[in-house]
Structures are given as structure tokens and as C-alpha cells.
Amino acid sequence: MSIDMAQFHQVFFEESFEGLDIMESGLLNLDMGDVDSETINTIFRAAHSIKGGSGTFGFSSVANFTHVMETLLDEMRDGRRQVTQSAVDVLLGSVDCLREMMTAIQDESEVDEARVAEHKQALETELNGSETPVVKEDSTIAPEPSSSIPSNDEPTISGWKISFCPHTDLLKTGNDPVRMFRELAELGDLEVIVDFQGVPTLFELDPEECHLSWTLILKGDVARESIDDIFDWVEDECDLSVQSLSAAQSGIDEAATATTALETQAPIEAPKNSPSASTTEQSETPAPVKTPSKDKGASKAKPPAAKASGSIRVDTGKIDTLINMVGELVITQSMLSLVGEHFSLDKLDQLKNGLTQLERHTRELQESVMNIRMLPISFVFSRFPRLVHDLSNKLDKKIELKLVGEHTEVDKTVVELISDPLVHLVRNSLDHGIEMPADRLAAGKPETGTVTLEAYHRGGNIVIEVKDDGKGLNKDMLRQKAIEKGLIDEGTVLTDKQCYELIFMAGFSTAEAVTDVSGRGVGMDVVRRNIQSLGGNIEIISELGVGSTMAIHLPLTLAILDGQSIAVGDETYIVPLGSIIESINITDDMVNRVAGKGETFRLRDEYLPIVRMHDIFHVESAKAVNLIEGLIVVVEGQGVRCGLFVDDLLGQQQVVIKSLEANYRCVEGVSSATILGDGSVGLILDIPGLVRLSNQ
């Protein structure tokens, strides 16, 4: 029975993208000249897993590319090669290339073969041309292949001799030699010669251990890669060598003939599968290639973002809590069913207690389910060490990145959507905030600037701060730039906060020249709009010469909202609780009416516009005429305050957000909808949209 491997593709891609992140993080943490075996082993294992998985699923281009990366990493981890900046740059570029390849395969689009060839050539150049490896006394380096020795570019070979000696634990890992032999037999004419010499006596025999070894003669025009793919999963669990039949017959030494032979290193004294327990894989000796320049080899192109995952890895503790909650809910439901079957007034207290338990368990179940969607913000933060590394080199600045609170959890949807705005804010800190090293020294600062990404919970929100110790924002310069660009009038009086918020105006930029980092005046307005679309806001704190902080405030989840129900005529609307400042009754002397301009009311020392909800949504109400009879709900959105005139406040409640656009259509002044307790639909108000609507 054949197995459809496509069903496992999604898991493979998710694990591979995680492996690429691990490789990138490890490469950025390597110290130049120092062979940190643990870090390199971690990088090597991630590459090895990607190669093995891609070979299993038939993605041979990924497997072949990763094999060359493994070779370079292997020489680093066993001390034959020092860690150099050029090697790290080439490997980082190769990680980008692998990410692009995986994304293209996942999207079922064409892989950029030219880019793959460029990076593969850069890897081979680093292996053979840029530096002479430091060879141990007992190391054996395979000689350059001669024209008589077949390579991967010559798949037609008369046959192969395979020596396969499994380790005793091979069967315990779920691998089956017979199945591998069956796959080999499909490639050509297979002869199997078994060696019984290692089999113990019957009384000493463990049926779960493998004591046999085999010599396999495979005849036919078979590509070497096809053989490697079959043994790929067991190469760490066996002693394996592969020779062409002609080489085996002529007695040529195996190390000089088998261009991609897998040799097992002497056992390391460490437990199996531990970080230090590993085997060395002798790589395929590359064919001579045209060497590209280093600039081309280590590409600085921004890697494409991986496709948003449709799954979440959940801690088993969260699942256990959820199962316990469901169990409690079932017990309560069973109790209420018994009460309902033979209900009488003397069971009223029992019914009330059951309903109270049901409410509590439902709330706890809701919290448990929402907790499953929570992911650590490190999923977003993990991409920034590479960004800071690349941009600081490009800008010739010395910058240290600090990550604080990366284990703070936030809703999966927020994690996916906040990434791009954060990238723009960090790039701005690197480009505009942090000064050049000479300027920092002249200002009495250390030449290395610091950018800090910090996340923490505050109330029902998550706060993400991007802080730098750079030059800060100059409010006078910001105001002057805004006047030059015609964004404000010269006589406009602005507070410090309003001056800082000029950077969010469309078309505003302080860059003297347009570069590939910044300067086009496009971005900060989009950043703010994207953050507001998540139900959040952004705040700027800055001190000239000291630094700046961009603080993003976001709801923990986008699925549930704390809201205030308000009555407008016979209709019920929901106002997000975070938008409400206060609710007041007003008197006639507080109201000012301007012909053709609408109404305002005085709240302490500030005049705020009044938004009549009855007029906005065309709802009839007896209280709609006289402002004295209703209530004013003071709200704030996008830095603008106004007063919503409503009939009454009905109470606070948590509501489940339903997309109005997906189920009906987009309605101005309304962000989404919810189902109320009586089954009716309640509209959730969009406060900034309401302000714009009332002005129209």
C-alpha cells in the first residue's frame, strides 16, 4: 500500500521554516575565529533535518543545496575550518536562498534556479577557493575528481556496490532495511548478500536489535542521488559506503572513488541523539565551477516572509486544562438535564446553582480556548537580529539589539499582523535614530548604539516598545519640514506631542536623500493605520539627544472585545471599552451651537464635538431632540476626542467579534458586529470612522 506523502507537506514546511530560523539565529551568534561546537552542531542539525525531509518528500533541489551547506558546517564543527565573517555571510545568504526555495515549492511556483546556482557557487567557492582548510593530522581529504570518475552530473552508471552495516539500534528508530531494499530493487537489478557474522547466539539475541549487515550490488543506469535519498534517514544509524562497480572491481580506494560516500566517524562519548553525539558526513567533491565575486555570493536581498501558518503548536498543559474544563461543563449539563426532566418549584435553587456553575465553566472554557491561540511575541522578535545585523553593516553603524519580554504571549492573529509595522519602526530607529559612531563619541556616548525591543502586558493590552538611545526627535525641525511640505500652515501652534505625531502624516520624511532604507515619506502613516486596524494605537516619547520610544498598545486578542452596550432608540450598539474616557449628563449652558458647523460642548477646558448617534444611523427616538434627556459618552480615537449622544448605557460585557464585511458589507462608522444575548445582532462602533462620518 502506497502512502500519500503530500498529507505531511504542511508539517514539513512548518518545521523547515523553524529550522531556517534556528540556523539564522545560530549563525548570528557565532564568534569569529572561535569554533563553538554546540552552536555549530545546532545549525548543522537544523540543516540536516531539512535535507533529510526534503529528500524524503522528493524536493531534490533543496536536498542538494543543503548538502553543500552541511559540508561547510561540518568542516567548521570538527575544527578543519575556522569561523570567518565571509563564511557566515555566505551561509546567511544561503539560508535566505533556502527560505525562498521552500516558499516557492510551498506556493507551487517556479524556483529561481539562477539565484540558487549563484548561492551554491558561493558556497563551493568558500569551501575550495577562499581559504585553505586547517586539516587535522588524521583527517583525510578526498582528492579532486578526475574525468574518469562519475559525478552527479553523469547519472548513467553501470551499477553500484553498497556496503550497509546498520547500528544495533536501527530497528528501534522505526527504520526497516527490507523496505529500503525494496525501493532499491525498483531502481535496477538488485543482488543482496547478507553477512551473518555479527549475529550472537540464540540465548544472547535481542529481537529488537539489528546484528546483520549487507553488501548490495545494484546494476543499471541509476543516479547516485536516488541511492542517497533511500539511505538519507539512516545515515546517522549505520556505516555506509557507496562505490561504482568499476571502482570496486579495480580495487581503487573508497575515499578517492566514492565522491559522496558517507563515512561514520568514531563514536563520540555522549548519549545517542544528544547535541554532541553526531556523525561526520564526507561531502560530495564539487565539480570545478566559475567563481563569483563575494559581493554576489553573499546576497543582501531581503528574504520573503514565510507563508502564514494555518496551525499552532500548543503546549500539552493548555490542552489538559481545556479537557478538564469540558469535563466540568459536561457534568454541569448532566445536572441541569436531570433538573429539567422533573422540574418543580422546590428545585428552583438547584436550577439557579446549576446556571451559575454553567456561566462560570463557560467563562473558564472561553479563557482556555483563547489561551490556545496565544503565542509568544518571540515569533516576531526572532527576525530582528538578522535585520539589525544586515542594516548596521550597510549603514556603517555599530548597533546592539536587546530583546526584552520575548516570552510575552499575544494572539496568533496579532503576531502575524504586527510584524511589518515593527520592521518599519526598527528600520527607522537604525537609520534616523542611532547616530554614526564618530557622532556618538563626539556627543559623549558609547560608539555602539542600542535598540531595545520590549513587550509586556498592561491591563488587557500588550505593549510593544521600540526604544533607541539615539539623537531623538527634534520638534522644531519636524515642524519646519511639515511647513515646507505644505502639511501644516506656518502659523499653526503645536504641542510637543503634536509635533512628534507629524511623522505619521502621509508624505512626511526628514531624510535628506532617498535610499533603499528610507526617505520616500511612505510608511509611518501606513504603520499607524495598520496598528489601528488591529484595534491599537501608537505613542511617541522622545528627548532630543537622549533617544526615542515608540510604544504600540494592542489588545491581547482580536476575537473577543470588552465593550459597553449603549441604547440608541430601539437599537443596541457596542462601544469598545478602551475608547471610552467617561460618560456625563450635560446641561444647556455647556452646549455651543455654530450655524452650519454642528454642536460642541465644554468639558473642563476643552470643547468637543457632539456626534448625534440617532442622526448618524437614522434611528428614531423620543430623546433625540433634547440633549439634556440623554447621555454623552466621551470617546477617543486616533488622538481625536468627541462626545457620542446616546439614550442610555446598558452595561459592560465581553462580546465575540464577527466580521461585518465578510458576512454583509463594509459599513462606515461600524468596525464589526456581534451576537447579543437575546440573539439579535449588535454593531460594534468604529470611533475614528464615526468622527469622520459626523464631519461629513
In words, what does this structure look like?
The chain is α+β, with helices and mostly antiparallel strands and 696 residues long. It folds into five domains: 5-136, HPT domain (Four Helix Bundle (Hemerythrin (Met), subunit A)), CATH 1.20.120.160; 159-265, Alpha-Beta Plaits (2-Layer Sandwich), CATH 3.30.70; 317-372; 376-555, Heat Shock Protein 90, CATH 3.30.565; 560-695, OB fold (Dihydrolipoamide Acetyltransferase, E2P). The protein is 38% helix and 21% strand. The protein has 22 helices and 22 strands. A six-stranded mixed sheet has the order 14-18-19-17-16-15.
Keywords:
696 residues; Four Helix Bundle (Hemerythrin (Met), subunit A); Alpha-Beta Plaits; 5 domains; 5-stranded mixed beta sheet; 22 strands; 38% helix; 21% strand
CATH architecture of the largest domain, by name, is 2-Layer Sandwich
Rg over CA atoms: 33 Å
Q: What's the CATH topology name of the largest domain? A: Heat Shock Protein 90
Give the amount of beta strand, in percent: 15-25%
Give the quaternary arrangement of the chains.
Answer: single chain
Straight-line distance between termini: 68 Å
Number of helices: 22
Largest sheet: 6 strands, mixed
Helix residue percentage? 25-40%
By CATH reckoning, the class of the largest domain would read Alpha Beta
Structural class: alpha+beta
> How many strand segments?
22
**Morphology:** flat
Mean pLDDT: 77
